[in-house]
Amino acid sequence: MVNKRWVLLIAAFTILTVLTGCAKEPDNKWTRLIKECTKVMTEIRKMPDQGIPEGALLKAQAIAIFPNTISAGIGIGGQYGQGVILVNNNGRWSPPAIFTLGGGSIGWQIGGQATDIVLLFMDKKSVDALLSGKVKLGADASVAAGPVGRSASAATDIQLKGGILSYSRSRGLFIGIKLEGAVLAQHWDGNRELYGREISADNILIKNKVKVPRCARVLVRSLKTYSLLGRFM
Fold this sequence. Notes:
single chain; alpha+beta; two-stranded antiparallel ribbon
C-alpha cells in the first residue's frame, strides 16, 4: 500500500519542478507547448473540489491537453488549438504526441477567448479511433461534458461512461463542455520536430518507438502521481 503522505510529497515535488524540468531542452514551440500542458495539470491539482474529479485520471485510457485554445466568432463558434495526447499503457504513461483540435463548438462565446481544454479517453474504443490519425468527436468517438468536483455521483459517471469526457478552463474554473464536431488530428510536423524524425502517433503512443523527451518527463511524472492520488479519493 502506498503511503498517502509519500504520494503527496511526490505531488509537491512535481509542482516545484515544473519551472525547471525543461531547462536543458531547446527552447522552441514544442517544448513551450509541453510546459503549458504541465502547467494546466498542475492547476488541476490546486482545485480538487471545483475541477476534474480525482478518480477520472485513474480510470482514463488516455488524456489530451490543449492549452490556450482560441475560440473564434460571436455566439456559436469554433476553436483551434495545439496540444499533446498521452496514452495510459497499463499504468505507464506514454511519451506525448502532438495533435491539433479544430472545428466544433464550445457553446455561447465571444471571439478571442483563450481556453484550456482537457479530454479524457475513458475506453479503448475511443483510443483506437484516435490512433487512426484523425477523429471527429461525436461521430468517430462519443464525447460528453465531464462531471466536475470530487463527489460520489461524479465517480459513478466516470465508471459508467465510455467515450471521451471533455472539460474546459477559463478564468480559473473547470467546467464540462460539449465538443460535438471538433476534429482531433495528429500533427506530423510537430512530432517530427519534437522527436527528430518522421513518426506516427501510433508509434509514439502505443508501439514504444521513442523515449519520453526530457522536457516531458515532468508531465509524465505528474500524471503518474495524480493517478496514485486518485486511489485515495
